[in-house]
Design a protein that fits this description.
Belongs to the glycosyl hydrolase 1 family. It holds the Pfam family Glyco_hydro_1. The protein is of the alpha/beta class and 478 residues long. It is 38% helix and 12% strand. The protein has one domain: Glycosidases (TIM Barrel), CATH 3.20.20.80. The chain contains 15 helices and 14 strands. The strands form four sheets. Strands 1-2-3-4-5-7-11-12 form an eight-stranded parallel barrel, surrounded by five helices. Helix 7 runs parallel beside helix 9, helix 9 packs across helix 12 and helix 13 runs parallel beside helix 14.
Length: 478
């Protein structure tokens, strides 16, 4: 059974729900120039993409989000009604430092998060804050080239110090970078790098990672100096990976897949040092180690200030096949691989694998022996509003129930699990497609992909179900 103080809640990101993208001194973020629609990643990944807004050609749903900036009190009240013990959200970097390189923060931005944090605390909801969640200031991407530039360490350190100092006495749980390993496949979101500013070159990706590792350790150091009880975690995508069969070639390929995607970033951030396979990995991807800027001071910082826990997202598993050319491909959370014939998939092709979550938890805890926090998990689906206004999302309940059952099994296995915050606890703009129709929430928001709707909030069937789950500490999943 889960701990008595288990952190049940939900998760969002500032750029996907706040809106108010120009309000109160906020600057543009990289998310603000990402267009809506299923072709979002193709547009961003094209050689021509240059971090510019083209409203004649695209819509930009992140600009409005779901108007959480104005309606956060209403939303937090709904979270409290469900019984949330915690709420994971992010601080929009460009609300605090509009361009990212200023010396002084924007007080209006800080006051917004003062109010948001206090609103959570008024209901006894523990804030869980991601410092950087796919929303770095656009200026840092266009003027500095994104995270491959070491100057960003200084800018992030200033940002982290500002928010940790301001909120550290009220907020106990933090994460430094959202899904830091996502840059392996798509560095635009977490590193601010696309083809036009070096994102296609793995040399830059690995340098950017190093700079982020250093910045993450600096955030841990700052937190320690403010209050030694503050918990700072890393955050990764975890995709349990299987070799398609017992052919040793596929099993060896799966070993490498796990090392490169699931473990590399956590090896550095949790263990405090680069893993033994790093040199081979660099060689594979054409990284010239002599050109990587890594100092002895950096390595000492990584060693002395590792993270306290591992936050991770889990949506799907993947299959590795190195021996066949005829297997069908699969889509997913920045991942590919081939289709698993034993699994069903979501409407967006993400393979649903609750048992894979138990495996993931055992793999992570067995490797690192630090607490785990599942900070994203959920089903993106098209929800239909019935004539009476009800929304029967039994498919979402089934998905979440199966994953919570898998969590229970992992806890029985001995895994130390801190909490669970399903993704998009209220409908918001999808990061991968910029759509509203890809809904995750317990709370429905009346808004379509073209921005039409009242923005009114209403409860889905999963709202009352999750309320019951939390009240019973996971015992009642019926």
């Amino acid at each position: 059974m889960f701990k008595k103080d288990f952190l049940w809640g939900g998760a969002t990101a500032a750029n996907q729900l706040e809106g108010a993208y120009h309000a109160d001194g906020k600057g543009l973020s990289v998310a603000d120039v990402m267009p809506g629609g299923k072709q979002r990643f193709q547009v961003i990944g094209s050689p021509e993409f240059a971090w510019e807004i083209d409203e004649a050609k695209y819509i930009y749903p992140n600009h409005r989000g779901i108007d959480h900036y104005e309606r956060f009190r209403e939303d937090i009240a709904l979270f409290a009604e469900m019984g949330f013990k915690c709420y994971r959200f992010s601080i929009a970097w460009s609300r605090i430092f509009p361009k990212g390189d200023e010396l002084q923060p924007n007080e209006a931005g800080l006051k917004f998060y003062d109010a948001l944090i206090d609103e959570c605390l008024s209901y006894g909801i523990e804030p869980v804050i991601t410092i950087s969640h796919y929303e770095m200031p656009l200026h840092l991407a266009t003027a500095y080239g994104g995270w491959k530039n070491r100057q960003l360490i200084e800018f992030y350190e200033r940002f982290a110090k500002t928010v940790l100092t301001r909120y550290g006495k009220k907020v106990n749980y933090w994460m430094t970078f959202n899904e830091i390993n996502s840059a392996f496949h798509f560095p635009a979101l977490s590193q601010g790098m696309v083809a036009s500013n070096g994102g296609a070159e793995m040399q830059n990706v690995f340098q950017a990672w190093h700079n982020q590792f250093v910045a993450s350790s600096l955030a841990v150091k700052i937190a320690r100096e403010i209050d030694s009880t503050i918990q700072v975690g890393c955050m990764i995508i975890y995709a349990t990976s299987y070799g398609i069969d017992s052919n040793p070639i596929n099993q060896a390929a799966n070993l490498v897949q796990n090392q490169e995607f699931n473990f590399f970033c956590t090896d550095v951030q949790v263990r405090g040092a680069y893993p033994a396979y790093t040199k081979r990995m660099h060689k594979k991807y054409g990284v010239d180690e002599a050109k990587l800027v890594i100092t002895e001071e950096d390595l000492a910082l990584l060693k002395n200030y590792p993270v306290d826990y591992i936050g991770f997202s889990y949506y799907m598993s993947m299959v590795v096949d190195e021996t066949s050319e005829e297997t069908e491909g699969a889509s997913g959370n920045l991942l590919g691989g081939v289709k698993n014939p034993f699994l069903k998939a979501s409407e967006w092709g993400w393979q649903i694998d609750p048992e894979g979550l138990r495996i993931a938890m055992n793999e992570l805890y067995g490797r690192y022996q630090v607490p785990l926090f599942i900070v994203e998990n959920g089903l993106g689906a098209i929800d239909e509003v019935q004539p009476d206004g009800s929304i029967e999302d039994g498919y979402r309940i089934d998905y979440l129930r199966a994953h919570i059952e898998a969590m229970k099994e992992a806890v029985e296995d001995g895994v130390d699990l801190m909490g669970y915050t399903p993704w998009g606890c209220i409908d918001l703009v999808s990061a991968s497609t910029g759509e509203m129709s890809k809904r995750y929430g317990f709370i429905y928001v009346d808004l379509d992909d073209q921005g039409n709707g009242t923005l009114d909030r209403s409860k889905k069937a999963s709202f009352d179900w999750y309320k019951k789950v939390i009240a019973s500490n996971g015992a009642d999943l019926a």
